[in-house]
Amino acid sequence: MTRHPVPPAQRRAALEERFPVWVPRTLSGAMDAAAAEFGARPFLITDRVRWTYADVVESSRRLAAGFAGLGVQPGEHVAVAMTNHAEFAVVVHALSRLGATAVLVDAASPTAVLGSALARWHAVALVVVDSSRGRDHLAVLDELAPGWESGGGGTALPELRHVVVFETGQALPRAGATTLAELGRTAPAEQETPADPQATAVLLSTSGTTGRPRGVPLTHDMLLRAAYSSVYGRAFADAHRLTSALPLHHVYGLVEGLLTVPFVGGALVAQLSFDAAGTVAAIEEHRCDDALLIPTTTLAVLAELHSAVHDTSSLTHLFCSGGVAPAGLWDDIDAVFGDVEVVTGYGQSETTATTACTRPEDPPDRRRTTNGRVRDAGVAGDPALDRRLVVYRTCDPVTGADLAPGEVGELLARGPGVVKGYFEDPAADAAAFTADSWLRTGDLGTVDAEGWLRLTGRVKDVYRCGGEQVVPGDVEAALAAHPSVARAHVVPLPDDRMGEVGVAWVVPAPDAVVDEAGLVAWCAEHLPRHAVPRHVLAIDADDVPVTPSGRPRTFLLAERARQTLLPQRNTTPA
User: Fold this and answer.
1) What would the pLDDT profile of 307-336 be if each residue is shown by its tens digit?
2) Which CATH number applies to 462-568: 3.40.50.720, 3.30.300.30, 3.40.50.300, 3.90.120.10?
3) Domain at 54-196: CATH architecture
4) DSSP 8-state class, residue 254
5) Residues 367-385: what's their mean pLDDT?
6) Is 550 helix (H, G, I), strand (E, B) or coil?
7) Which fold has domain 215-458?
8) What DSSP assignment string belongs to 293-349?
9) What's residue 151's pLDDT?
10) Which of 283, 321, 361, 416 could bridge across to 345 with cysteines, CB 3.0–4.6 Å?
11) Is the pTM above the cut of 0.90?
12) pLDDT, position 379
């Protein structure tokens, strides 16, 4: 029996009947609407709690009153440095009720990065988890702003008036510190003043694959339209239940996970951090319909399913996106999961998460060879753009000239789903936006005549060897075709004679040994001379630095290559 007795088109028709027109709402307003219809249904499930829609609404109303008691005003910024605890959702919805902006930061950020974010983005309050993954975040605060328990940011962070600690019990309590539990016991306001759906709901930090993060302001309406476009494109059924370990402070986990399920009265089974056995256990225990993964975590889940017998019969959907899919991944998924509706996509923080995506009914070859087409967002889309939220075109990354369909160039994006600029960063705006307001995504790719988009690499990753342009994605694809290679990441290395040469960091296939000379010879057979990497280095999959969405931090790999190989520069004969 098929796992999908109701075809996608019929499920979309049910969504169109439920949502005949788009009603702009705030995040908390959307949650209130969902609670009015699905109040007793589970919304958030973790290893600690099982909260209903009504639970989250009531908790967020109390916490909003608590923040108001601290003096947080509409439009002010409150930094949220938490991991995937259920309380994250309560904090975000509470700030939405106040009309304040949630500045979402990675709790694991280096001390200097956290301090810079708090200062640059004018946080008047900080909600911080006490400890995660063995790191004492309160000790980090001691370093950033001594005396924060009673004095906020002090002279180091003068705009920071309050620090609120989410206590997990993994760190020693601090006398005098305000706790999230304490604020959450505040009596809710009798009447709330609705915020503007067009106001900024969250300020996200860019992934930073190439350097300094920037602040991305997303409105309530942008976030909810993007979430509904996922619900509609993937054709969620009633009570859709998904599991995810993707960070909720990142646009992928936030939009595709936390914000999608309320449209259909579904539930998010949130994991604190990724663990393959934990993901499979979540599917089994909670009978999840769906899982949000990136290629590296998908490989780990497949390995877990190969190693032991598990019941994943409830799984009907799988979303694997972010990063480059290793050779053979889609075949492995199909072999293990059968007729599960598997999709992939493309997007970024600046476009409010996924914009291009395959559909469940697309031929499987489309997810092997493309990142999908721009989503039909249904009622949430722009009628002038054929119900889309974003449109793409390609241009020459050097001259800016438009390219013909199918030609590789920089992907440019524009539409109501694209931010109008970064937060207080005119230099970044000037670099990222064209004169006619197209966003330079920084990604290389193609868009063919039928609208299928294919990501090939990053503009800043392209380098020149002997004056010839090298696209790392081409080299990585050639290496990935070798049986000893699971995946590869190619970065440039300065060279006095050639300008730059390639360094390939190779993750070996299981039980394989990297043969540098052999792989260089392999590339020489399959690539132009200028694209053949000068060096091939082995690296464990766990040692590849990645962003929360799974993209490799290539600037860190390039720096590691320089530290490793610069003493050996120019030793290869001419």
Assistant:
1) 999 999 999 999 999 866 776 889 999 999
2) 3.30.300.30
3) 3-Layer(aba) Sandwich (3.40)
4) I
5) 96
6) coil
7) Rossmann fold (3.40.50)
8) E-HHHHHHHHHHHHHS----TT--EEEE-SSPPPTTHHHHHHHHHTT-EEE-EEEEG
9) 80
10) 321
11) no
12) 99
